[in-house]
Amino acid sequence: MTSVRVAVLGAGALGKQHARIYSELAASSAVEFTGVHDLQPETAQSLAEKYRVKAFASAADAAEASEALSIVTPTNTHFELARVMLQQGKHLLVEKPMTDSAAQAAELVQLARQHQCVLQVGHVERFNPVFKYLESVATAPRFIEAHRLSPYPARSTDIGVVLDLMIHDLDVVLAFVKSPVISVDAVGIPVLSASEDIANARLRFANGCVANLTASRVSPEKMRKIRVFSGGPDTSYISLDYRAQEGFIYRIARAGEEQSSLLKKLLHAKDSAIVSEFGGKRIVREPVPISKEEPLKLELQHFVECVRARRTPMVSGESAKAALDLAFEITRQIATPKQRLKAEG
Q1: Buried b (16+ CB within 10 A) or exposed e, 184-199
Q2: For residues 126 and 130, what is the distance between their CA atoms, to the nearest angstrom?
Q3: CA–CA distance, 328 with 308 (Å, rounded to integer)
């Protein structure tokens, strides 16, 4: 198995995590971690010394020494960095949001296709075991409610909360529902910044599913939760916590469970219960069987594997652009008339 030569551009809070994971992967020879670059040379040097790699003087130097790169820099720098590197045939993992305009995102997708490069975007929740479990059990989602809340961040203040936080849930619901969005209704307000800091969006899909998404970066505590009502032959309600990687599924007890004494055993299991009963039917609540793993590590492993096999990543440039287009429509609805004129001018 050949090692993929990979570098990290950006040594901020998230860039440090990319560097840590690539260093771990290098220890098992999955990658050759070539080094890091940051506009603050001392920051790059400190990180490089920690992982015994090179501190590159420029992004161009990092690209020259590598075949794949993580771009973990401010959003407004993504397009220029990615454009130049795709033209050089480099494979890229670009942190979300991919760009700050739809036209730029479309150009990067086209360049990746033209130069046969892997272009993956950092929508990390798609690699969360919570999402994989959700896909397997909620096969006919009818209503989705997501809350993504946090205190005001020290980073990503150049964008609003929709592009900063809500975009994760937009990417998830688009991948999960697999149906076109036919209507969007959004509201939001700025609190501490010039952009929206609290936002809510209600999405209606062509198949009838409705998603209600709330994001805030002025909350006293962090929350990343999703709840799904699913129809079909196995009607259920699933409540999951992305951060804790745990949750519950509420479902109708299947025929024969009582006879096999499974329900009796269930009542003695930790956190399991019969929560409702009527007409011979029972609603069972049981903890979900999720094996906890680090989503970012799974994401970077997937990127490396896609580069090695020249395979389209799960979160491709095309799918990330779809989430971005939806995010821009939400921010357009939220924007004041003055902000809209400024954006259009």
Answers
A1: eebebebeeeebbbbb
A2: 9
A3: 33
Give the end-to-end CA distance of the chain in Å, rounded to a whole number.
Answer: 52
Q: Give the model confidence (pLDDT) of 195-224 as tens digits.
A: 999 999 999 999 999 999 999 999 999 999
Between CA 119 and CA 115 the distance in angstroms is 11
With beta carbons less than 8 A apart as the criterion, state whether 163 and 204 touch: no
Q: How far apart are CA 279 and CA 282, in angstroms?
A: 8
CA atoms within 13 A of residue 4's CA, in its CB half-sphere: 25
Which of 290, 199, 197 has its CA nearest to residue 243? 290
pLDDT in tens, 31-76: 999 999 999 999 999 999 999 999 999 999 999 999 999 999 999 9
pLDDT of residue 113: 97
| Per-residue tokens: 103 | 């036209």
Half-sphere exposure of 117 (CA within 13 A, CB side): 27
CB 331 within 8 A of CB 162: yes
| Interatomic CA distance for residues 11 and 180, integer angstroms | 37
Sign of CA dihedral 164, 166, 172, 174: negative
According to DSSP, residue 164 is labeled I
83 closest CA partner among 61, 66, 63, 57: 63
CA distance 304 to 315: 13
Query: Are 127 and 299 in contact, with CB atoms under 8 Å apart?
Result: yes
> Phi and psi at residue 2, in whole multiples of 5°?
-80, 140
Task: Take residue 186 and report the two structure tokens written for it.
Answer: 């959004």
Query: Whole-angstrom Cα distance, residue 174 to residue 168?
Result: 10
* Residue 37 to residue 45: CA distance in whole angstroms: 8
Distance CA 13, CA 115 (A): 31
pTM for this prediction: 0.89
Residues of the chain under the 70 pLDDT cut: 1, 155-157, 254-270, 336-345
Residue 252 makes CB contacts below 8 A (sequence gap 6+) with 235, 236, 281, 282, 283, 284
